[in-house]
Structure formats: structure tokens, C-alpha cells
Design a protein that fits this description.
Keywords: Membrane, Signal, Transmembrane, Transmembrane helix
Pfam families: DUF5317
Protein name: DUF5317 domain-containing protein
Mean pLDDT: 79
Strand order of the largest sheet: 1-2
Strand content: 5-15%
Low-confidence stretches: none
Length: about 220
């Protein structure tokens, strides 16, 4: 989803600015990642074959994602991911597809877009829990779309999980200003400041200038 990718890019930038590093992701303790791979395969096969395979693949994918989330609930952001997936699964299960608000599409600047994806349908009076459908407009130039509240929660959870996994400190690193005793004057200048031992030895080792010749 575009919103998820955008939030994750922003989260990665914020993590880098506050001391996080991509290398820290290698030490993450997420378990059951193979369940995510199984979920992706289930959705792909359902979309390719269509018909009865689509809802079967969707249900199997939801089960795999639920197992993965349950195994990793202790990680920051996973709770938001679980809540977002539950909201999306609930509204899809009640309606057979994700309902899309035409008003949200218009506000996102894509009101003339046709909804032909079998995973989506236009909301109407018979839609159940329409407020859990794609009702949140995302007005991006050339990439406008409508997303669901569940998608917003998923994006927030993914961003928080990435931010925490990169080891960000939450504070922007700053250079500490030097204290007075650390300041050293340049060689040859009046020693108005308190000289450090190193600067004192440097000045004392310089030869004194020869006196001027007396006048004739």
C-alpha cells in the first residue's frame, strides 16, 4: 500500500536523524516471518485464479497474518498492526469486499476512477460498517487514493516497528559546546585566558625576539 510505504520512508528518515541505523534491523527478534510469506502467497494465488479461490486465499492470508502478529505482540507497533488488520478483515468479511466511498475518492482527486478490482466495491445503503471501508482520502499529486481506518493503523504500526527496530533514541544528536577551560589561545597572543598545560609549554618553548639595535 502506498500509505504504508510513505510512512515507513518517513519513519526510516526520523530514525536515521535520531541515531538509528539500518544495520540494527539485522538483530531484530521478530519470529514467524514465514507466516508473512505464506500470507503473501495466499493473496497472490487467490488474485490469479479468482472465483472461489479469491475468498479462500484471503481467509488463509488473514489467518497467517494473525498468527504472525500473535507471535510478535510484544514488539512496538505490532498491536497497531493487529488492530488495523482486524478492522479490514471485519469489514471485508461482512461485505465480501472492501467498500470504497465515492466522496473520499473525490476528495483525494480521483473521483473519476473506476473501481474494477474484485477486492473493492462502491459503498451504498446496503454496506455494513461503511466507516471501516476506504473513507480516508489521501490527496497525493498523481497518486491520490482512499484508504480505510485499518490501513491508517497498519501504516502507523509498520512505521513504529521500523523506527524501533532501527534503534532510534528519540533525540537528535547534538555536539556539546566546549567548556571555558578547554579553550586555548593561539600562539603569540596575550594569555588573557587560562592556558592549558599544553598551550603553556608551547608558548614557553618559543624563542624570544632579539632586541632592536640601539640608536647611533
Amino acid at each position: 500500500m502506498l500509505l504504508v510505504l510513505l510512512v515507513m520512508v518517513l519513519a526510516a528518515g526520523a530514525a536515521l536523524a535520531t541515531g538509528g541505523r539500518f544495520a540494527h534491523l539485522a538483530a531484530n527478534t521478530l519470529t514467524g516471518v514465514h507466516w508473512l510469506a505464506a500470507a503473501a502467497i495466499g493473496q497472490l494465488l487467490g488474485s490469479l485464479f479468482g472465483g472461489t479461490a479469491y475468498p479462500v486465499g484471503l481467509i488463509g492470508s488473514a489467518v497467517c497474518i494473525a498468527v504472525f502478529l500473535r507471535l510478535n505482540l510484544r514488539h512496538p507497533g505490532v498491536g497497531l498492526l493487529a488492530l488495523g488488520f482486524f478492522c479490514n478483515a471485519l469489514v471485508v468479511a461482512l461485505n465480501g469486499a472492501m467498500p470504497v466511498s465515492l466522496r473520499a475518492l473525490e476528495r483525494a482527486g480521483v473521483g473519476d476512477a473506476a473501481v474494477t478490482d474484485p477486492r473493492h466495491e462502491i459503498s451504498d445503503a446496503a454496506t455494513r460498517l461503511p466507516w471501516l471501508g476506504d473513507v480516508v482520502p489521501v490527496a497525493l499529486p498523481g497518486l491520490g487514493q482512499a484508504v480505510s481506518p485499518g490501513d491508517v493503523l497498519i501504516a502507523a504500526g509498520a512505521g513504529l516497528l521500523l523506527y524501533a527496530g532501527m534503534g532510534a533514541s528519540g533525540r537528535v544528536p547534538a555536539t556539546t559546546a566546549p567548556v571555558w577551560d578547554d579553550l586555548e589561545p593561539c600562539a603569540g597572543t596575550p594569555a588573557l585566558l587560562h592556558l592549558s598545560p599544553e598551550a603553556d609549554r608551547e608558548l614557553s618553548s618559543e624563542p624570544e625576539p632579539a632586541p632592536d639595535d640601539p640608536p647611533q
